[in-house]
Write a structure and sequence with these properties.
single chain; about 220 residues; alpha+beta; Heat-Labile Enterotoxin, Chain A; four-stranded antiparallel beta sheet
């Protein structure tokens, strides 16, 4: 697939962040868990726990200069179910670490809505970022991969997965008409998107399917 074909298929991308996090994202960029752990100077055993083990709930980090941030939970990826999805040569800890080093965008509004309405998240408020795909590709093409599935979910069926599910744009298959096949579910950037203010189109505060207005 070419970048132009990807943009035609997914002109807008979507990221669901913790409600109230937009000011910090604007200040530091849209950062992966690993990048936030770097920024907040988290080391040692706590770092291993947050980066390589399952997070069943939200985790709050504090820093004397950077204030507070919230690491999202990994409820859809409990260890027992994840273990059944991975080959023997890929450990659960390495999978958690792999995903924690990435920033994820949904390739469609339908996928975003599905997560907003999910049982674990529909009663919480979220800051939803709408991003211009063409601008993201121009800035991060070399650090960007595509995935055909929700790589951090093991429900309702534990689909098999390996690191190879993350493919470059050039390696992603297309139909004879140039459409991605299978459809792109996740657009993924390594580590972080620093210049998020240059590529974001809108930021909305959402709760379930309800738009609460512009995030502030």
């Amino acid at each position: 697939m070419t970048p132009e074909q990807l943009v035609r298929s997914c002109p807008k991308l979507y990221h669901m962040a913790e409600g109230g996090s937009w000011p910090q994202i604007l200040r530091h960029g849209l950062l992966s868990t690993s990048a936030l752990l770097d920024l907040f100077d988290v080391k040692g055993a706590r770092r291993v726990s947050l980066e390589e083990q399952h997070r069943p709930g939200k985790t709050t980090l504090t820093h004397p200069l950077h204030g507070m941030c919230v690491l999202r939970d990994q409820k859809p990826m409990p260890p027992a179910r994840l273990r059944m999805c991975l080959p023997r040569n890929v450990s659960s800890s390495s999978w958690y670490r792999l995903l924690n080093g990435k920033v994820f965008f949904w390739g469609s509004a339908e996928r975003l809505d599905r997560l907003l309405q999910a049982r674990h998240y529909r009663n919480d408020e979220h800051d939803v970022l709408v991003v211009d795909a063409a601008k993201l590709l121009r800035a991060y093409n070399e650090n960007l991969t595509l995935c055909h599935m929700n790589s951090g979910n093991t429900f309702p069926f534990g689909a098999r997965r390996t690191p190879s599910i993350f493919r470059s744009i050039e390696d992603y298959p297309t139909s004879g008409m140039g459409h991605p096949r299978p459809p792109v579910v996740e657009v993924v950037v390594e580590y972080g998107v620093r210049n998020i203010e240059k590529i974001v189109l809108d930021v909305r505060r959402m709760k379930g399917g309800k738009d609460l207005g512009a995030a502030k």
